[in-house]
Request: fold
Amino acid sequence: MSGGEELLALAERVVAQALPGEQVEAFVSRDWETDIRVYEGEVEHFVSAQSEGIGIRVIRDGRTGFAYAGTLDADAIAEVLAEARDNVTFGTPDEFAALAEPDGVDVVEQELWSDALAACPTDRKIELAKELERMALAADGRVRIEDSNYADVAAELAVATTTGIRRSGRENGCYVSVGTLADDGEESHTGFGFSVGRSPDDFDLAKAAREAAERATRLIGAIKPQSRRT
Reply:
């Protein structure tokens, strides 16, 4: 069972507990992120984290209650459902409150997941940030580097409702960026460059480095134009 199918099965188990007269929606998510910052060829900051959670919405007699937990532990999910039901009693009545229903239109499938990114080792992610820093320095001798970064995120999502909606999906993406500085007397000009992709194979490091250098140096020697009354 894939991650998305696992989350969908969990969401379906929640909505199956709906009581008579209730509409129940369960939204489940799990995500991962990597954040790397490099300075002078060394890793200055590294974070690799995972989070997950579930949100449950209950509608009864025109009142809506919602609750959320940042865990998929079975006991916690039971508490979230109970809390959502309890919160219904505090909701303002709304005659139009209701969950969406399937409209019969086929969902357009989109390629939002890259296996190449999912399989990318951490060492390569670090090297991409280091390489971008080297390329930005080489682009113009007047440039200093503020920082060079790599980041990515991946998410699996699922939603199920008592009205018949059952959907799951996943997506991921990544980017690199570099911040630059160029001195001009007592002033410093800043620049930046970045590249975004579904996977690291989509990056254009040369372009990101070139733009970062150009943005930092293009105002060197610039002066304000003279002004006068007209």
